[in-house]
C-alpha cells in the first residue's frame, strides 16, 4: 500500500457537524534567556493583534486552556486570542475543511496524523523552525520533532506522547465481587460474574474506534507484529478474522455490550454515558491523556458519587507486549495566519513558559517539552492518574503507530471504515471473515486512493 493524500472530506458531511464556540475573555524555558526573548518579541509587535485558537477535548481541558489564554493576554496585552473548542465528534471534519479552504485558526491543536493528511506536504501549516527565536524548540527531543515534519518542514510541535490503557471502576468490581482482569481467562470470568450480578452490568465498554485499537492491541499481543510497517499491512485475512471472532466472543461472554446497546444509551462518548458514570459499565480502554474526563465523571456522579477509577494491568492475550504509542497531539500554526510570530508566542507560552505550564497541567497529557516536565515535577503539578498511566504505557507498549491508522476515512463517526465494520459485525450483519475482508479493503482504499 502506497501512501497518498486523500481528497478533502465532503462539504455535505461537514455541514451537519456542530461545534461549540466560545470567546475567551481578557483577563520560562529551561534554556536561559528564552522567556526574555519571547517577552521582547511580544513587546515589539505592532499594534493590536487578534489570534484564533482552536482545540477539542473535555470540559477540564477547556477550562484550563481558557485560563492559560487569559493569562497570556494579561502578559501580552496587545494580543487578543479568540477561542473555539468542542468535543471530538465532528471536529476533524470541520477543521479539515477549514485547513483545505485556507480558513484555519491561527493556532490549531492537531492530531499527529493530520500532518500526513492535511499539511499539503508542507504547505498548509507554517514552518515553525522559522520562528525558533520565539518558540524554544531546544526543549523537544529531536526524534519527536522529526515526526512532525513534512517535506523537511516543521509543521507542528509535539505536545505529549500517549498510549491506551485499561481503566477499571474499582467500586463496581468490589460491589460485584470480581477481580480486575489481567488475562483472557479473568476477562471472560468477569463477564460471567457481571451478568450474574446484573444483566445490565458489563466489565468493559468499547465503541467502534475503541474496538479498532483494541483489535490491534490483541493481534500485536498474540503475533508480535506491528499493524502496519513501511506502508504495508502486516496481518493476513485469517489473522484479522481471528481478532474479529474474539470481538464477537467478548460480546457473547457479556464482557462488552453490543454496539446497538451502546447506541441506545444516547451518549456521544463513554465519559458522557450514564452507565459509565454510574458504574454499570465498569471498564474503559482509553488514552492516558484523556482519562481525566472519565475519572471526573464517575467521581462526580449524581447517583453514585465518589467511585474509584484505577489503572489496570495490560491484559495478556499472548507472549508479546501489544499496543502502540504515538504523539498524542501537536500545536500548529496555519500557513495563512496573518500573525505567525504571535501564534508561535502563544504555543511557546502554553508549552515552555512556567506560568502556562502550571495552568495547563496535564490536561493534554505529560509534556514532551523538557521545561514542561521540569516545572510539573518541581511544583508537584499534574493529575496523578495521568502521570502514572503515561509512565506505565510508555514502559510497556513499544509498537509504532502508522499515521494513516487515524485517517478520517477510517475512524470518522459514523461513516469511517472502523465504524461500519465493527458496527455490522456487532449487529450480526456480516461474518468475521467478511469483517476482516471489509477492513482490509477499506485500509487498502485509504492508502491507495
Describe this structure in words.
The protein is of the alpha+beta class and 449 residues long. The chain folds into two domains: 49-162 and 327-387, D-Maltodextrin-Binding Protein, domain 2, CATH 3.40.190.10; 163-325 and 397-448, D-Maltodextrin-Binding Protein, domain 2. Helix content is 44%, strand content 13%. It contains 20 helices and eleven strands. The chain has helices at 11-15, 34-43, 59-75, 91-100, 114-118, 142-146, 170-176, 184-197, 208-223, 237-252, 259-264, 274-277, 292-299, 340-352, 354-360, 370-379, 384-396, 408-411, 417-427, 432-448, and strands spanning 49-56, 79-86, 107-110, 149-150, 153-154, 157-169, 228-229, 232-233, 283-287, 309-311, 325-333. The longest helix has 17 residues, at 59-75. The radius of gyration is 22 Å and the shape is globular.
Layout: helices, strands, pairs:
Layout: H1 11-15, H2 34-43, E1 49-56, H3 59-75, E2 79-86, H4 91-100, E3 107-110, H5 114-118, H6 142-146, E4 149-150, E5 153-154, E6 157-169, H7 170-176, H8 184-197, H9 208-223, E7 228-229, E8 232-233, H10 237-252, H11 259-264, H12 274-277, E9 283-287, H13 292-299, E10 309-311, E11 325-333, H14 340-352, H15 354-360, H16 370-379, H17 384-396, H18 408-411, H19 417-427, H20 432-448
Parallel strand pairs: 1-2, 1-3
Antiparallel strand pairs: 3-11, 4-5, 6-9, 6-10, 6-11, 7-8
Helix pairs in contact: 3-15, 9-10, 9-19, 10-20, 14-15, 19-20
